[in-house]
Amino acid sequence: MRPRNPICRGLLAVVTAAAVLGGATACVGGRSADGRSHDVAEEADTRYGPAPRPHRDVTYQPDVVLVGGGSRSVRSVTADGLTWRIDPRAEGADTLARGKVMFITGRGVGRVLDVRPDGDDLAVTIGPVAITEVIRDGRFTSDRPIAFDRMVANPAGEPFWAETEESGPGTGGSGGGRLPGRSKSARIPAGQFNVTPTCCATGIGLHFTYDSGGIRLVGTLELMFEKPSGTFDLVIDNGSIRTAKFEVTGGTGLRLDVEGGSALGAGHNINRRITVPVDFSVPLGTFLGVPFSATVNQSLTIQTAFSAKNGNIQAKARYAFGGKLGFGYQDGSFDAWKPTGFQVKNSLTNSITGISVGVNGLLFAYQARLHVGIGAFGFSTGLYVGLTASVGVTIGSALGAPITVCRGATLTLFTDYGVGYRLPTVVVKVINIFLRVFEAKPIEAEGGIGGTTNVLNRNEVVPDVPLCRK
């Protein structure tokens, strides 16, 4: 049974806009070729992706199984994105086995970790693959700009990997319970956090709230864009990347507004990672029979450092920059493009406020990543470029007020890029524990080629006096 999700409802109203890129069929009356009504067929394609098909100019790897029927052969997908329940009568389904690569739709592609009958269905658990593990030869290039502002939301539900506790000293607080129910807004439970992701006409952003174990947090982080668009080119030759290019334009800046408080203080801090259980995507059409999509996903790491009871801290900032994100790759060499013209519109350091008898601090690492390729959620494979902002704010004890109250802020920006997939280490660990149930081979944290380039490092204290620089 396919669950009805408040975010999923209403997506058909915007799918027609995605059809401008050639990947979606407009909603019309009547029935499709397989007997389904057009709106049902289109909803399935939106949720699961269109089907791949053979093409004379593309060669798949020998262990790739193209399962017939596309979305109409998909019964359901688990919230973690790992297990696909499919029609066992679909063409090719009977050849699926551990170690093979299942390719059933543009979002349903991965290395088969486990396959077994489940009632009237076939349950296939998949892990990530590099795009060169799917395609042996082919050239895939955009003949028009990708309109990232036309994306629609694809929620995963409440997967177990959405919110995980990072290892490290000083972590505490309560465990990772689940929030009941789902509001009618775009707010999504992610462990004990509520997150509201946004994308993409004016930016890629995330609003979050947390209230547990005596700690309250609320904040908004946004990578701002002005009508973002992109282009790509990918040449795979004999299972290796020969040429790759992915360019995203329209970046205008970074905005953040965060605050937190603790009723308990030292010994009751948190260190959590949120992998937002929603990706935003738009189908780009089939390239040599391969259904490519553009996808955006987000993650956030939060660490608190409250040293006394009833401490609180607030900060906000806005930074502007221009240029483009992306990379070029040719015969083993990367050339990365990063934002330029950095300007401070609203100083982070000057905005820090808070009152406490102890030192308080917050650390956020926010990442927005754009993909072009196949797959879904953290298992997307293809070309990618991401921008990560690591922000730390601290404020000294109010007991030092007769002399001075020190405020400090750090901001680090870096971009990562490449061809393949990259998963957070903590998520890989959790998934691999889960996969032991199947006695399946552990998945790797990354596959493919890529790199990282630093964009900016800023470290400031106010006031700039020896006491605060210690």
TrEMBL record:
Residues 31-56, 160-188 are annotated as: Disordered. Residues 33-46 have a biased composition (Basic and acidic residues). Residues 169-179 have a biased composition (Gly residues). Residues 1-26 form the signal peptide. Keywords: Signal. It comes from the Bacteria. This is Lipoprotein. It comes from Micromonospora polyrhachis.
